[in-house]
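In this supplementary section we document a worked example of the pipeline. Step one takes a protein sequence of length 366 as its only input; no multiple sequence alignment statistics are reported here. Step two produces a three-dimensional model, which step three serialises into structure tokens for compact storage. The input and output of this example are shown verbatim.
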Amino acid sequence: MTLPPELLEIIFLRLPVRSLIQFKCVCKQWRSLISDPYFAKLHYDVAIAPTHNNNTKLLYLSSDFSRACCVKTEPSIHHDYPFKLQETYKNHSLRIIGSCRGFVLLRNYKPKPVLILWNPATGSHVRVPYPNNSSNSEFPCPDFFCHGVVYEKSNDDYLVIMGSVRPLKRKPEWKFFSVRSNSWKEIEGGDCFTPNISMGHQLGLLYNEAIHWLVVYNGSDYPRGIVIVAFDIATKTLSMIPLPYPQDPSQWELSLVGGAGFFGICMLNEFWPYIFVMKEYKVESSWILIDMLLPSDNTMIPLCFTQSGDVVWMNRINKDLIKFGKLGSNEEELQEFKLDFCDKDTVLVMFNESLLSLPSSCRQEE
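The serialised model returned by step three reads:
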């Protein structure tokens, strides 16, 4: 019996990406439907809907750089199937520096500096030219400290954002790259926001059509200090979000944490962490200290919230994951998990698989 296309689409929209990729080999009709860009967008929208998004994932590179390992965080923490890396990118300079809509942003220094926007599920990828890549002297390893990738819906475009402080100039530089136009542009107003070198390279946190980092504010209309800077995807401008209360960076270790519709910040002292979430976006007075059990261990850093109201933490020493707490609950729930094939430099990003492709105007490689 042959199913009508309408019913077939309804069924396929609720299947995982891996199954759909395998189903492309069944027949021409299935391949045509699954390969349709419109279907890919619809499938992604269904997959991330609150009623279906019960498979929040984290992605990291294996220590031998042969694959990207995937961890599901719900309903329990467990490894999912890995993704193979292209042979040309397998080396010890490879790092994950962003994730958006099923694409992972990679940075590679060898054999020459390059950024790669890669869909692990489909294997398609595109090389992003580095800013000022005419000379390797313009590519010092510690150059960029804030980075990430976002999707601009109005133009069906992906933007790569970088914030840096060049060692000699000591002047903040913020730029974004448009995949569709294949060009870099300066972000106006970036001279007020200095990437926080002491916090190392920061992954951007996507929330409410903006991407966020912790930086040092240098403007004249607000006291100098650590703030959250937001790059608005629609306007391509930077704006400031003050922390819950003025902080002395020497007393706290700060990190942003999101996922499952939450936007928050973890403030870690020498004893234990505190997590604040923002009830109303960009309203300074709406920061609240969340009521949940937290690990009494200052080696733990938060990775993400889950749909079930837990927080996934990582032990920065042994790289174990712990799923801990319950939003609005005093009951302790604890699950420990050991990462496979990781090392001391392991970086984990929130990840949602997709069949999506990059704008047709850019040349993708298989």
